[in-house]
Task: structure prediction
Amino acid sequence: MAKIILSGLVSDLRGKLGGAVAQVSPGGLVLRVPSARKTSRTPYQSRAGEILALSVADWQALDTEARTLWASIARAYSPDAAGVGLAVAKGRSDFIRWRSAFYETGAPLVSVLPASFPFDSLGLAAAVLTDPDPADGLLALALSAEPREVMLWARPAPYYPYLSGRGPWTRFFRSSAFPALVWTPGEYWSAALPRAAFDPLLPRPVPSYWEMRATVVTVAGTVARSDTGAAAVLA
Result:
């Protein structure tokens, strides 16, 4: 807000001019100009907002049968969603969380009606590059089904194993970018990560540690997320 002192050239000023509004107040003539808003959202936050909007729109496009199925899933796996209204609300929340993983990873969506419980647990997400020169790294995921698409983000953790929980995330791996990647079943699903998968984390002092989060869509159509993983580049 600006206060204007009139002169002989301008004796009065009222109304709107562009984005400014001039008006008379007890203290004199006042010119009100709205401040320009500056966005502080990171690209990651902007993309997350877009994914949320798309997922909500997909829920709104579902028919009654599909919404009823999601409500029944919520009622079966969430004791606190026993009531009809709560079941529908929880089903909506579950659908959005499930659908957003497909947008996030770019994995193809076969059906909006899952054949079973749509979520998988991701007990461990660990990525290690033992030698930053020619050797491959290792990625291990505790999943009950084979991964279809995996995306990994990391941010520096200089005081590892203590994680600050602050700082922007860097997406450093997307499995579809490496079509030759082979998943090996076992206690954990594991794969050898090409050296190039770690490029966004390098060059960094060796050893370097990173807090890691993962989003996974499995071949079975379930999704899993973990925010408790660790990435390391070791000599």
Q: What stands out?
A: The two ends are 59 Å apart (CA to CA).
